[in-house]
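hi! just following up on the protien thing from before. the input was this:
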Amino acid sequence: MKNCLTLVLKRLFLGLFLFVFYSCAYKSPVEEPYSILIKEGFSGRTVKGKCFLKGESFFLKNNFSGGAYGDFIASAEILILYLKPPLSSEVILLWKKGEDVIKMINLDKKKIYKIVYERLGQADLSFYFLGLREKRLHLKRGLLEGEYQFFPEEREGIFTSPIFNLNWKIKELEFTSELPPTLELTGFKEKEIELPF
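and the predicted 3d structure came back as:
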């Protein structure tokens, strides 16, 4: 009986030793998607994640501000934000490389607002949204002037101008092989908003 108890204690001690040894051993860290994007860029990759976006506008003394949590899909060629404001309908913001348009799609009201701005198609909005380009930039195009900043540690971006401010924070980020769902937009009314500056 004593030999059996000694044998059980030895095996228990050996098992505990091996468990502690393997669980405390050095494991190479899994590189997170954001650090891979900073080093290599998109390189044909697509990412998806969650964010919080807050905007303020100062048009003609009509100040407006609002914020929303949402999901996004981004690649070098496209940026789609699915925003879900708490007291409003879901809004989708869509930008494609090569187009001078940001589409703002209101699903409940079945409206598409096309915000047209010259040379917008040349900008890499996905890169700036994720902070993969300059971290601080002063922009001046025509009458529009503003400051862009991105803080990689907090994964937070800010764009301030006399006309509007935007703040966004990336909450989650992961690589995906999913393609963005095609949007069924038949019956939607379109309105074009051309920014003169």
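The mean pLDDT is 82.
Residues 2-24 form the longest helix (23 residues).
cheers
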